[in-house]
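Structural prep section.
Before we set up the soaks we want a predicted structure of the protein with pyridoxal-5'-phosphate in place, mainly to decide which crystallisation condition to try first. Input record follows.
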Amino acid sequence: MKVISDLNQPTLVDRSLAAVWHPCTQMKHHESLPLIAIAKGKGAWLYDEQGNALLDCISSWWTNLFGHSNERINQAITAQLDQIEHVMLAGFTHAPVVQLSEKLSALTNGNLGHVFYASDGASAVEIALKMSHHFWQLHNKPKKKKFVCLENGYHGETLGALAVTDVAIFREAYGSLLQDVHTVMSPDARNAENGESAEDVARRAAGELEKLFIREHEQIAAMIVEPLVQCAGQMAMYSPVYLRLVRELCTRYEIHLIADEIAVGCGRSGKFFACEHAEIWPDFLTLSKGISGGYLPLSLCMTTDKIYRTFYSDQTKQGFLHSHSYTGNPLACAAALACLDIFETENILEKNITRSQDLKHAFAWAGTDSRIEHLRQQGMILAFDVKQSALRNASAFPREMFSKSLDEGILIRPIGNTIYVMPPYILTMQETEKMGQAVQRALNQVLHD
Ligand SMILES: Cc1ncc(COP(=O)(O)O)c(C=O)c1O
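Run finished without errors. Recording the tokens verbatim:
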């Protein structure tokens, strides 16, 4: 009797499909696409309820830097739990948020010495946009309220962040709710024409941007970019020359530069901040995802002394009156401090030079596969595009590839015809090789089926 009643019990997946509305998902696709119930994670591996192992090649949506259930981060959170789990940050402070802010500021050599906290990435972007807007009002330039963003850029899905996002699928249904922005040419190196180099494309894109600034700078508050890699925009990569030119233009035309490092920060690009490749600092820099090692929701917006001072006044309404309940949560800050400690004590950025070489070797096959184009890499992100001519069913390709990869024991989530990996900074050379071979086998199956 008992066995029969157990058999009739809905599984966790059934219950999830009934009760949980999953993000970034057409729920009906789960009629054919597996939903996987994860029971456990250790290192770069996820384990489902049946104990099957999956190599997490995309760091659980680009968040996990040092593996699942990392002992040092676990310990830091547990120790903090015994002290204070949460306290509001208005009128109160605590050691983890102070230490984290000081450490982050030091990583920018004090250039971005003021840190404002939130929980998710999109909120950090909202903060940067609002601070810029408010700054210009406080400087008696109320006309400066337009934002400039890049074609194919992504900054999150709340209404302000979505307005500066140029990924059609996320915007389409909400277009009428979004403020009007200027969207300018992406410096994506794949836009090269007639033998142009990536640097030539960067210069051409900066030239286009300057034309807009000349015409409209009096109405423009800020320009927002994802430094070096437009991640959700199919891992479009571009030359650091663009960042250098944009910094110059923003300074010349009195426009704030917002560097959204939510995906590319925390060592992902090869340096701690992607802006360091161009030797520039923005006026606002947003971080989230990896900053807490993929453990807890934490985001932040760093800014300069000049901007901070503008809001410093006897007048309450001149302050930056923005808040989230979990701003600067102590547990999340403790996780972030543990991550920064790992970076420092384990020489992660240096070791990642070797890891990114391993990544390159593991995917060398993609460079000679005639079905593939634009093999590209920036630090710990590697991507390539499957040629349209090789695809049988372009719209089904990401799901088919996801599914076949699961059969090969790896987790990847292609974006359109782009396949990418963005693994945690802990893979062994063998695991990296396994990942490269598994992607190749999965791709061969999808393209031959
Ligand atoms: C560059 C960038 N900005 C902002 C966001 C939004 O972050 P969240 O999903 O935490 O709101 C993302 C998320 O992928 C991102 O890649």
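Observations: The pocket of pyridoxal-5'-phosphate is lined by residues 120-122, 125, 154-156, 226, 231-232, 260, 262-263, 288 (CB under 6 Å).
Flagged for discussion at group meeting.
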